[in-house]
């Protein structure tokens, strides 16, 4: 490898890793950011890429363009050697560190349901979002050719499932009459195992989300536990079979731990209150991977990444670390083109005002001027003309 | 297949096929457009997608959104049965026709040079452009990691090679100092077998293009015939070896004939002056595939597609066909961000005025409002901030 690498290593360029990098940039501490991908991904808008409302690069930003004082290494880590204080890379190289921030995030989990890995579509990476879009367009072409009905099944009534099923319903409402008049009928079914959608929100907002999705044409099925994903649909625990041309799996996130790190049953790594690995104060674990029990949400990842970098700076200065405190700023979920629900400052908010808030928050957080501008224009265009722009299948 | 298909079939949704479709739309004649891809591709800007200056969907538009009175079938044709008047599809289906317009375009040709198929990158489809971008970004990451020099070799001094090497040089000029300071040196080499670049233009414009490319940092090598593409570069006919981390093949286009059609040595299908297959007046062959000897350029394809559809309408009305007349409106090639050369109304034009003309012509021809707007914004952004926006590797 060319030259010596910095002694502070951040593994992962998601929300948590980038938040840590920013703190180090401001403190002028050299660091190395290692990621298997060359971009930061704005995951909260991934479902809009999957449904053709946004282009992929609008929500992805090159890490090298974000990092100015640090360095970037495009590499996949195979394991960490905690005693030897080094990362083992998949290509055989070895990367020593003095301080390590592990921010490898989370992976979809099949929750032990058979058939998920082979037959369901996931939505966690840019590649997966583009695959969903590709499969969606191909399913429409096939249904049009055969004059057959189309059925899309989304599993999971959390924010991802709600956002995805709403966007799918709006996509179909636009695309069917104009582009695919041959398709006689198209359904979007949202399956939730529990008694209500959005269980992390207050019940009134769950009910609002259910009504708003029904208004968009989504069939919401509560108490519908999926027992298996089969060749052409899903099998419920009740024994009932549901036909689905596409099965989108929006439940079950588990930590994406690095071999060499201790992990709990959900793949998350327990830390002390300072976000450090017990027995290894030089290793910080932040974001979705952290096992302290905070929700796996972007605000937690942003705050933990910055907090860990702050403690790292304190350690460099010989100061004691501070225990992590989460400032809960609330949560949001969007339903279709101009409705959302929000929990904020202890209050519930629903409808267009919540959507405006959602749009504002996401545009503000999107990294990079170009992205903000393009996302805004894409949104504005879709909003004015109701046309999902990206309906292209690359070959 | 669902329902009966129209009796007029257009095979291929490129410039020629779409131009034919538009004439039929206006005449309210039902038709079926068959393509293996779901989008029309604006090929003249493909090199900008390859170099990250434009996003893929900005130059691709869904066929279903372009076709209102006709129908679209996403399918690959395996062969034509001229006697039986039917198309054989790759999936086994059979498509009868009464009139057929064949507009399957052209493919890159290796010109018999060994190693091209395995080791060179082509630039004819959206998928290929995205692959070039991916390989370019990966080559930069590898060179940065190893602190090694980078060499990009473009083969072919026609418009595509000139545009591509100019865009690569500008991409490197932007990206190296900001994102890849670890790379000590990067070259772009343009190889042309003949004595000058842009042989279809007047010699003064060739010399202008050579100077303008040299100004951008492109090493132009004339009289450099490639004998083989090897593991890590190219071998010239002189015996000289040239190192290349990427080899981009921008020479040699041959017709993409359909089995069942007679084709000449260059893969092109001879027709009568009315653009019809001899002995089969119900079959028209247009665009790059037509063997009448016109240049393989977008304006020819647009005019032939429309002309063939005009003759088809005349046949439906019992009128005699008209022989194809080409209205030569000139040609353009762009060199970098704000220079171009043009042959127009018998005159040569070079520099910024030619570039303005180029930008105007391309924006005017780009299909669809959204694309025009997005391409314009992408251009404006790059022009103002000099940043190729798309540097994201999807996984």
TrEMBL record, chains A, B:
One of its GO terms (biological process) is aerobic electron transport chain. It comes from the Bacteria. Keywords: FAD, Flavoprotein, Oxidoreductase, Plasmid, Ubiquinone. InterPro entries: FAD/NAD-bd_sf (IPR036188), FAD/NAD-binding_dom (IPR023753), NADH-Q_oxidoreductase (IPR051169), NDH2-like_C (IPR054585). Residues 7-305 form the FAD/NAD(P)-binding domain. Residues 329-385 form the External alternative NADH-ubiquinone oxidoreductase-like C-terminal domain. GO terms for molecular function: NAD(P)H dehydrogenase (quinone) activity. Its cofactor is FAD. Belongs to the NADH dehydrogenase family. This is NADH dehydrogenase.
